[in-house]
Amino acid sequence: LYKLDKNTGNYVRYDLVAADHRPVSPAYNTVYDMIEDDSTGVYWLATHAGLYRFAASDQRMYLLRSRPLQEQDNIELFVNIRKQNRTLWLGSWAGGISTYDTDKKEWGHFMYANPALTNNIVPDLLLRPGTDSVLIVSNDKGPGYFDKKRKTFHFLYNPPNISGSFNSIYEDRASNIWIASSRGLIKIWNQSRKFEFHELPVGASSNN
């Protein structure tokens, strides 16, 4: 994590630490996403090592995990983070979705398939205030949603005949769904659920 000092123009670096406050292995020292907690000076970080709480008051990192940090454990390798009320929602690299109640300090972990059959990678998720669903995009199954009440996944929007990986999801003001993929941009119309596929111009080196 880096912070820009506006007075000096220099960057201050904060390394991730383990539960005992010793530095983690360089392999884990990656921050993928972060949010500020309602302007309280507290920041939540989605990292390779797990969920971190960074308090601006004491300038320290606090690692929060539901299980010990082990080599090759990607269940709590978090790549994105969102917050709704007191609950943090995290998409992981191998564990589907995780939740963390910041008041009760309780975890929830939800995979959409048997780990032996799929990778359970959720590179992006989108909270929908006032609804019981969380829009998600999975790396291999495409877009869908997570039912918060039933704790179940539904992949109803899987684009036909579109292969490749799916990277991020967005809902516009008209409730149309947009998906960024390795093949280009996909739009799902809200009313008809019809798909539009937009590739980059011919000659572009990549559609990622």
Give me a quick take on this structure.
With 208 residues, the chain is mainly β. It is built from no helices and 18 strands. The strands form five sheets. Strands 3-4-5-6 form a four-stranded antiparallel β-sheet, with no helix packed on it.
Describe what you observe in this structure.
Helix content is 0%, strand content 43%. The chain has 208 residues and is mainly beta. The strands form 5 sheets. Strands 3-4-5-6 form a 4-stranded antiparallel β-sheet, with no helix packed on it. It is globular.
Low-confidence stretches: none
The oligomeric status of these chains comes to single chain
Secondary-structure content class: mainly beta
Bulk shape = globular
Spell out the helices and strands N to C. Answer: EEEEEEEEEEEEEEEEEE
What is the straight-line distance between the termini?
26 Å
Overall pLDDT score:
84
- Fraction in beta strands: 35-45%
Number of helices: 0
C-alpha Rg, in Å? 18 Å
Strand segment tally: 18
**Portion in helices:** under 10%
Largest sheet: 4 strands, antiparallel
Please state how the strands of the largest beta sheet are arranged side by side: 3-4-5-6
